[in-house]
Amino acid sequence: MTRRASGRRADGESSIHQDAASRWHGYVSMRTTLAGKADRRHVSGKTRAAVLKKVRELERRRDAGVVTAPGRLTVAEWLTHWLTSIAPRRVRDSTLTGYEVVVRRHLVPGIGHHPVDRLQPEHLERLYDELLAKGLAPSYVLLCHRVLSRALKVAVRREKVGRNVAQLVDPPSAPEVDIASLTPAEARRLLTAARSERNAARWSVALALGMRQGETLGLLWSDVDLDAGRLRVAEQLRHRPWRHGCGEPIPAPDPLAKPSWPCARKRGADCPERHGGGLVRVPPKSAKSRRSIALPAPLVAELRAHRIKQDAEREAAGDVWDEHGLVFCRPTGRPIDARQDWAAWKELLARAGVRDARVHDARHTAATLLLAQGVHEWVVQEILGHSQIRMTRHYTDVLPEVARDAADRMGAALWN
Q1: Strands 230-233 and 291-294
Q2: 63: Cβ–Cβ under 8 A, 6 or more apart, which residues?
Q3: For 354, left (φ over 0), alpha (ψ -120 to 50), or beta?
Q4: Alpha-carbon span 366 to 359, nearest angstrom
Q5: Using an 8 Å Cβ cutoff, are 95 and 134 in contact?
Q6: What is the 3-state secondary structure (H, E, C) of the chain?
């Protein structure tokens, strides 16, 4: 409620007055900022009526809980609030860890001092140039841009700012990563070399079905129907960061710095009373990743043999066996860590005499082999769990067999 400057104002009440130069000024007390500071807005105009209109509009937006400008809120304060209170509800722990590095190491030191409502495209362009000059890869600077854009998108939606300036900037372009698919001959050599391993079927699943590493390591026998020749991808195995259990964090002098802990250990994994971490089964990467896959007949036979061997291991282990119902596990029944799986893959490559490749390249290999066999790209999309068909079509660009088949068909259509 506004009133004239004459008389005593109640705490938090708006005020209007005229200065010595006959210009009118209005002051509106808003809610406190995220930093806990008083937020008092100023408007001005040539007439009292014009200022009164501005004051009432600010009061209306304040009372409705939608304030366009955030007062003295800085980019650092908003990013910290978004990182600690908003992003954790929307992304995985591993993704959040990457966001924390981007925000604390690059975004806050570079542009954190700017008021968030006064952030300009030129500020972002200068920051990106500085990060590139330090030797950061364009793909990483692009990640910084995307993290900032996501945080500002929420700020716009909550009407903290009027626009997302990140959308006005052309970020560095990251070169596309070449798809490194194995040839059919290399894939067969790998399967031959894997026959002597206890989890040999793990690599058959990777090369035949293109399942992601976490999906394969988190696969349960309850999701496999060998009689019907199908399996269901319902969850994946992920490593969740450990959390401190030694007490409340000790705030750092700098509110943007990480707190310290009573145990004096930086990482939650090193805390004597750590909790909440380790290998866990979580939902797959996307809704499209939940899928049912038909199994090739040879793979069904291989999985049957694998299950018989695993039953024998369980019986031999006795009380040592820790049952999790996993298709692929350690000799004690416990889940396989992604790093152990990666090391086993590298050893298999060397033993088979196959060039170096990533575990994920087995997924690429499955995609290219399916397309080479003439399987329709929409079917390949369903098998691999791609969220968009363009991801599947990307494989046709690196598959000579598909390109040659298309050329031969065109030749037959026009010249034969």
Answers
A1: antiparallel
A2: none
A3: beta
A4: 12
A5: no
A6: CCCECCCCCCCCCCEEEECCCCCEEEEEECCCCCCCCCCEEEEEECCHHHHHHHHHHHHHHHHHCCCCCCCCCEHHHHHHHHHHHHHHHCCCHHHHHHHHHHHHHHHHHHHCCCEHHHCCHHHHHHHHHHHHHCCCCHHHHHHHHHHHHHHHHHHHHCCCCCCCHHHHCCCCCCCCCCCCCCCHHHHHHHHHHHCCCCCHHHHHHHHHHCCCHHHHHCCEHHHEECCCCEEEECCEEEEECCECCCCCCECCCCCCCCCECCCCCCCHHHCCCCECCEEEEECCCCHHHCEEEECCHHHHHHHHHHHHHHHHHHHHHHHHCCCCCECCCCCCCCCCCHHHHHHHHHHHHHHHCCCCCCCCHHHHHHHHHHHHCCCCHHHHHHHHCCCCHHHHHHHHHHCHHHHHHHHHHHHHHHHC
- Residue 33 near residue 81, CB atoms below 8 Å: no
Reported as a single tens digit per residue, the pLDDT across 9-48 is 555 678 898 988 888 998 888 765 555 566 677 888 889 9
- Of the candidates 272, 275, 248, the one whose C-alpha atom is nearest the C-alpha of residue 262 is 248
Convert the pLDDT of each residue in 220-256 to its tens digit.
999 999 999 999 999 998 887 788 888 877 766 665 5
Would you state the pLDDT for residue 1? 44
Q: In this structure, are residues 232 and 292 in contact, taking their beta carbons and an 8 Å threshold?
A: yes
For 209, the token pair is: 């079905």
- Model pLDDT, residue 409: 66
Q: How far is CA 56 from CA 28, 69, 115, in A?
A: 9, 15, 24
Tell me what pLDDT residue 176 has: 65
Query: Which residues fall within 8 angstroms of residue 340, CB to CB, at 6 or more apart?
Result: none
- Per the CB < 8 A criterion, the answer to whether 208 and 363 are in contact is no
Q: 98 falls in which pLDDT band (50, 70, 90)? A: confident
The answer, yes or no, to whether residue 153 has pLDDT greater than 90, is yes
In which residue are the tokens 């018989």 written? 308
Contact between residue 132 and residue 173 where contact means Cβ atoms under 8 Å apart: no
Residue written as token pair 């499955």? 366
The position carrying tokens 């690196």 is 398
The answer to whether 15 and 43 are in contact (CB under 8 A) is: no
Q: Which residue has the tokens 């030749």?
A: 411
